[in-house]
């Protein structure tokens, strides 16, 4: 569903992403990990067509992000690191606006708004202005906009950031429930979240791939004790 071949991104003379190649099969949830500044957000921005690559090819559902950007965007729900909220709008107004951009209208739009609002637990704040909401609720609204229209691919950049423990657990269950139906790339710094949610893990370090394996095989492949935790493997692979 997602194919990335020899992806490189340079910001002037800084190489943020360095020759990444990987693919995500339909229905798979990929945990996308790396230390601060490793290049995760940059990669996700390229996958969603938000930034152009310097080199390499990215295809989503067979469509090239550069040549067929609209086809790609139609298939992706994206939660950027900073959710793109219009804070002067109400939650309802904002979600209605995003749904209309995604081509929904009439009763289908209304039903979809209710569906994602219930899923993200924002039904009771629908008529509040976004800037007056707590950080966690703003994050919920950000995730809700990504889920609108039930796109086949979801790119989630630190989705549980700012959520309270209960909501974090709920969101984890929600993401896990997407497996098989949606293809998900999940970036997070919370490693147990990956262990509980993802089948496969991609770890990048300084823009380069450090690991790309089934989570069950990660410790064995990277020369750790079989029972090494994801945290131990991560620290070893991203040291220095
Ligand atoms: N617009 C930009 N111009 C110049 N350099 C940038 C730009 N955006 C990101 N970078 C640099 O590219 C590198 C990768 O950044 P990126 O935000 O992709 O990392 P990340 O893995 O998402 O980090 P974090 O976990 O801290 O969010 C960093 O060195 C960053 O400073």
Automatic annotation (TrEMBL):
<dbReference type="InterPro" id="IPR003439">
    <property type="entry name" value="ABC_transporter-like_ATP-bd"/>
</dbReference>
<dbReference type="GO" id="GO:0005524">
    <property type="term" value="F:ATP binding"/>
</dbReference>
<feature type="domain" description="ABC transporter">
    <location>
        <begin position="2"/>
        <end position="231"/>
    </location>
</feature>
<keyword id="KW-0547">Nucleotide-binding</keyword>
<protein>
    <submittedName>
        <fullName>ABC transporter, ATP-binding protein</fullName>
    </submittedName>
</protein>
<dbReference type="GO" id="GO:0016887">
    <property type="term" value="F:ATP hydrolysis activity"/>
</dbReference>
<dbReference type="InterPro" id="IPR003593">
    <property type="entry name" value="AAA+_ATPase"/>
</dbReference>
<dbReference type="Pfam" id="PF00005">
    <property type="entry name" value="ABC_tran"/>
</dbReference>
<keyword id="KW-0813">Transport</keyword>
<comment type="similarity">
    <text>Belongs to the ABC transporter superfamily.</text>
</comment>
<dbReference type="InterPro" id="IPR027417">
    <property type="entry name" value="P-loop_NTPase"/>
</dbReference>
<keyword id="KW-0067">ATP-binding</keyword>
């Amino acid at each position: 569903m997602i194919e990335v071949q020899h992806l490189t991104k340079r910001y002037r003379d800084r190489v943020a992403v360095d020759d990444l190649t990987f693919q995500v099969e339909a229905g798979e949830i990929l945990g996308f990990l790396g230390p601060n500044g490793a290049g995760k957000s940059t990669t996700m921005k390229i996958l969603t067509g938000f930034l152009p690559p310097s080199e390499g090819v990215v295809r989503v559902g067979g469509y090239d992000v550069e040549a067929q950007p609209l086809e790609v965007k139609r298939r992706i729900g994206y939660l950027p690191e900073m959710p793109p909220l219009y804070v002067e709008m109400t939650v309802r107004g904002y979600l209605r606006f995003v749904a209309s951009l995604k081509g929904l209208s009439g009763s289908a739009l209304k039903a979809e708004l209710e569906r994602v609002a219930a899923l993200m637990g924002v039904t009771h704040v629908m008529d509040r202005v976004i800037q007056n909401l707590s950080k966690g609720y703003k994050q919920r609204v950000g995730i809700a906009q990504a889920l609108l229209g039930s796109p086949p691919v979801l790119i989630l950049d630190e989705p549980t950031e700012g959520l309270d423990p209960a909501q974090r657990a709920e969101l984890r269950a929600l993401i896990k429930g997407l497996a098989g139906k949606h293809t998900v790339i999940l970036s997070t710094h919370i490693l147990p979240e990956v262990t509980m949610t993802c089948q496969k893990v991609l770890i990048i370090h300084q823009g380069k791939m450090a690991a790309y394996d089934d989570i069950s095989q990660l410790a064995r492949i990277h020369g750790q004790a079989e029972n090494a935790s994801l945290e131990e493997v991560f620290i070893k692979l991203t040291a220095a």
